[in-house]
Amino acid sequence: MSVEPANPVAAVRAVLPSLTPAAQSIARLILDDPRVVVRSTITEFSSVSGTSEATIVRTARALGFSGYSQLRFALAAAVAKEPERLVPGDLAPDDPLTDVIAKVARAESEALADTAAQLDPVQLAEVVSAISEARRVDVYGVAASGLVAADMSQKLLRIGLSSHPFSDAHLALTSAALLRPGDVAVAISCSGETPDVLVPARTAAEAGAQVVGITNNPRSSLAELADHTLVSAGRETAFRPGALASRISQLLIVDVLFVGLAQRRYDTADAAIRATRQATDRYRAR
Length: 286
Description:
This protein is α/β, with parallel strands linked by helices.
């Protein structure tokens, strides 16, 4: 029995790179305007998309629905709940700055809402438990995801957990090879296909460490490799590669993990936070 995604549009966006070319053309129509599906029978949508009804049904199933009718109903519910777009569409070369502000702000807020809606509390709890009990935590990420890796590592350090961020593949591999059972490697990649993240993560898994993947694509190579996958949501466009929408959704996951860890290790985390705050306060008072 299929389990329908909480947010069908976010689910379509997440798995888009993993779909066949025919399914991708259908998925892009859904992303461009979900209302096309809502107001179309499968025969009508077949004509609009230029694909067969069988392909549409296969695509719906690939997206996590039992068929086209279920996809249509889910999109209708999502459209009904969605506020009207004040400034629709992606950023354009001639957009005035007022539209840029509105579009970027909307993308960030949608990324946070979509990520929160699709985060699995069971997976989160398992990751919190694994990190809390780990001897060491490696965090791998490059480019924009490298900034998130650094943020996560400093947060873990702040509550007394041994953690190191790596954005250099060679250093990441060196560290990953020295991990052992009981350690945790957190691999962060929007696409889930970044070689500089995948190879260290695979090396960490071979060494016996648990691997946690944070990625936009739940069907990516990283998701397949990881013991636990936390799915972020955020769209990158031609004007916004490494966009804040992608990064802020990853940071939301990091913050949720941090709070979960602080709760689980309350006494030691509270003592560590107070000790580090006192140390930095003394430094600033010099």
